[in-house]
Amino acid sequence: MEILSNRILNMAESETLAMTAKARELKAQGKDVISLSIGEPDFNTPEVVKDAAKKAIDDNFTHYPPVPGYPDLREAICTKFKRDNNLDFKPEQIVVSTGAKQSIYQVVQCLVNPGDEVIIPTPFWVSYKEIVRVAEGKCVYVKTKLENDFKVTPQQLEEAITPRTKLIMFSSPSNPTGMLYTKDELRAIADVVAKHDNVFVMADEIYEHINFVGGHESIAQFENVRDRVITVNGVAKGFAMTGWRIGFIAAPTVIAKACNKLQGQVTSATCSIAQKATVCAMLLDPKSSKDIIDMRNIFMQRRDMVYKLLCDIPGLKVRLPQGAFYFFPDVSSYYGKSHGEYKINNSTDLAMYLLNEANVATVMGSAFGDDSCIRLSYATSEDLLREALRRIKEALLRLN
Ligand code: GLU
Fold this sequence. Notes:
By secondary structure, the protein is α/β, with parallel strands linked by helices. 40% of the residues lie in helices and 14% in strands. The chain has two domains: 6-44 and 290-395, Alpha-Beta Complex (Aspartate Aminotransferase, domain 1); 47-282, Type I PLP-dependent aspartate aminotransferase-like (Major domain) (Aspartate Aminotransferase, domain 2, 3-Layer(aba) Sandwich). It contains 13 helices and 14 strands. The strands form four sheets. A seven-stranded mixed sheet has the order 2-8-7-6-5-3-4, sandwiched between helices. A hairpin with a 2-residue loop joins strand 10 and strand 11 (342-343). The radius of gyration is 21 Å and the shape is globular. The chain starts with 5 loop residues before the first helix and ends with a helix. Bound molecules: glutamic acid (GLU). Glutamic acid (GLU) binds next to helix 2 and helix 6.
């Protein structure tokens, strides 16, 4: 008899984490691997945030917190939404979870019935698909074009919506493409959604503070869809706090209550110390916080550098990302080529070739629903990036 459930047997592993684990394994074997696989800032958490965590321990915040998060944290999150996004939420609309990934998982579990359709513009962040599949929802992929900065158009959305559509999920700034939707583009999407009463939007804004072109725009700002938008955010990316595992939603109260109920059966709440640290992070104003501004500026310098190096590799199609810390170049001109035992027919072949031959870990585009591309995270030092790009170029040029 099969030990494991069909649910887990049918679930794909997270490729971002799998490639990172492979890179770690090779490093442990003594290989000089450069990892451009995981999307994780290489900076340390701001000192002031760490101090808040230390104080929380000393103040004995070591007991179970309320399921959706401490009241002061939910207040601080409301303050953040007002200050940064001009959005008004009440604490009961906020649920704090163990990372934005759990937040997304809970939203999908609370909204999607088996057979419900979830529209996912492609390329998408790797876990959306599996999260929907676990809920037995039906993923409806809408393929976007590199020439359109990988953004879904209102017409495409309109065509994809059916009476079974329950949810649309996307990230802006986008993982994996680094592109972001403008206010006008979001308004156009909101206008389409507004015409369909039963359709909700999950807006993943975890890369909000890593934006190189100006103010962040939230789709929740549009009144015609406001009561059907779930905004997901957290501290991992903008505050270099990946390990603290704090994500949150701001949602219509009925959805927040449902997520709270689910969370009460799953984790009880997220870590008390990390929550107290997050109160401090939420009260940092991104317009004046040196930590946030410095990180963004460094990411931008790296982006510019990597862009030049990528443009210098023949056969790649590259867009200049406007946010997050990823490039998603089209590498398909190398498909059909080979070197020694390596035959490159798809993005997995190419990512494995780069890992084994160039000692550079990337993530295959197929994990994000686009097999023509690979994802490179530039959340690492300029020296390592330069060396990684040199190796990638050399390895690609060896293919014929
Ligand atoms: N979100 C990051 C990434 O895409 C972290 C890894 C993950 O959770 O998938 O690389």
